[in-house]
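Protein in question quoted for reference:
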Amino acid sequence: MLPQYLPSLQISATVYVGGYIARVVSEKMNCENCLAVCTKPVNNQPLLQFSRCQDRGGLLYPSDQLLFALDTLRAFADSALKNNPTLQKPLYELTKCTVPALCPSRLLKCRSDDSHEQTG
């Protein structure tokens, strides 16, 4: 039986990229609290269907908070690039706008002492 909601390719790609980001956090941050903020256990959510099919035992699954942040960033980038198609250095310009907005957010804040966090 098919799930009632099949995620779009765009959402599936966002979930997959979120899993990659969670893997980078796992390998580079050495902080269980950061990893807990960025990941969640695999489940049967249709949203994770593509990633589950690709999983050979090593994928991490992004938390709802991380997915929300990534989808918001994706929507911002889509809108900004649509409204400014000739934007010079788009990655630099979009990063310049988004990093200062995302860093103070409590959405992906580590629950430990924050001494290892980097800003901007």
